[in-house]
Amino acid sequence: MNVYDSNRMAALLKPLGYDEVKSPEAADMIILNTCHIREKAAEKIYSELGRLYKIKKSRYVAGERIQIAVVGCVAQAEGKEIFKRAPYVDFILGPQSYQRLPELVVRSTGRRGPAFDLRFSPETKFDQVTTRHYHSHFTAFLTIQEGCDKFCTFCVVPYTRGMEYSRPVEEILIEARHLVKHGVREITVLGQNVNAYNGKAESGSWDLAKLIRSLAEIDGLDRIRYTTSYPANMTKELIQAHSDVPALMPFIHLPVQSGSNKILTAMNRRHNSYDYYCLADSLRKARPDIGLSSDFIVGFPGESESDFKETINLVEEIGFAQAYSFKYSPRPGTPAASLPGQVSEKEKNERLKHLQDVLKIQQSKFNRDCVNKKISVLFDRPGKKRGQFLGRSPYMQAVHVFSERDIIGEIINVNIIKGYKNSLMGEIKSCDSLNSKPMRVQH
Ligand code: SAH
What we know:
Largest sheet: 5 strands, mixed, barrel
Mean pLDDT: 92
Helix content: 25-40%
Bound molecules: S-adenosyl-L-homocysteine
Low-confidence stretches: 437-443
Distance between the termini: 24 Å
């Protein structure tokens, strides 16, 4: 979502004459778009700011002035504290106020005091359609939902991104058609709880399943993904869409956090482990080859060794194509930060290692099981080696192949010859069917 937001900011600044440069040394303005989800991410900002201050100083000595801004969730959470710790910051902007970026740039130019805007107004944040998409010309993110009303006791999102908000259907469809017209073949729709999507349309309100069916009708949009989903918001309709919308990719990121019901209750999750088992089951019935992904937190306050074992059991029982796992990070102002029974760093480290070892084995197995299969890959970038190209499988695996022909922008059925920990190696035979359409890119 920060990538999507950064694109939007770049698009907003273009009319003011700003363009992107490759290094901070060459910039007239540096915007740090920040994440507050875990302490490590937030602390990184201050060390990065220290580095940027040096650039600002040396440019100042040379008679030039550059602006430094902090935007995103750290700006929202820390507020004016940032100016105290880093007084050389020119302005800060919360994640729901990006439409005011040009105004702030102007306001902070030539004024003495720092400028800031930390209001919540997601409904106007999206006013401008963006055609910019970072990863490649062929894949794009599209935010459809923001914010969170769930109040998991560990999480800062409701405080930094605000309450759940869904963009209206028409606005999303316009943006999606626009992206496809510019060559995009795969769209990942985004939201903090994307499957809680409930957007206004002329015919009433639409859920994510209905939106996906409508996106799938856009001619030229070959692949649709969505992330991140909240388990209690999975609907029968969405699961059904996995069975009968071919463009919907067979991969889902569905964070469970823990396998222990005691911990899930303490986290204020609205699902228990049984619900999660049932969801995994229904998804696999709808789409037998679906790849499951998840998030896990180890060392939540009160997590005992046996609670942790229940997480391991869940992982072993369900089997994941890939997953993210984190040590619990107390976030200021969240209920769990002041709970008794905080787990020691040593135990958190041990549990994280144990969990990651199990997850790594599963990921390697998932990748190895692809060997000798034909898998469709959307190639969207060159590889590191000469003649090498990189793309994504339907299950989000990175796939690399060698080809004499430039295949960027094509979807090709590739023979998988090797499965590694983090990627697959494929081979294109001359007789391989190319289900690619002529490139529609407009540079
Ligand atoms: N809305 C989704 C998850 C989005 S947040 C859901 O609730 O299921 C992204 C992930 O960051 C979470 O799934 C969680 O695993 C992790 N996370 C959030 N707060 C955290 C914290 N305080 N400590 C460690 N991990 C955290």
